[in-house]
Amino acid sequence: MGQLSQFAPFLLMFVVLYFFMIRPQQKRAKNEKEFESNLKVGDKIVTKSGFHGKIAELAETTVVIETMSGKLKLERSAISLELSAALNKKA
């Protein structure tokens, strides 16, 4: 019983850490992966670096976006879920 009471604070800290840090990060990563897989030609997107454009071509890991200045080839992971959602919500 004495050893259990010694480890209880550590166990409680791990549970709190899991629910406030690890679980939300896993959920966010799952949402981003789902967003990347649901992209299609013609979607308006914003990259994490701030480029606005429309998807012109899709490949397995890359995407070509059409911007005002031409076409850019980027990794799918460079597209921001939050910024793209905010852009599409305005329109």
UniProtKB/TrEMBL annotation:
Localisation: Cell membrane
GO CC annotations?
plasma membrane
* UniProt keyword Transferase present: no
How is this protein positioned relative to the membrane? Single-pass membrane protein
Q: Name one GO biological process term.
A: protein transport
| Stored Pfam families | YajC
What residues form the membrane-spanning segments? 6-22
Which InterPro entries does this UniProt record tie to the protein? Preprotein_translocase_YajC
Where is the secretion signal located?
none
* Primary subcellular site in the record, as a coarse category: membrane
Keywords attached to this Swiss-Prot or TrEMBL record, sorted alphabetically, are:
Cell membrane, Membrane, Protein transport, Translocation, Transmembrane, Transmembrane helix, Transport
- Which family does the record assign? Belongs to the YajC family.
Protein name listed in UniProt: Sec translocon accessory complex subunit YajC
Q: Which organism is it from?
A: Flavobacterium phragmitis
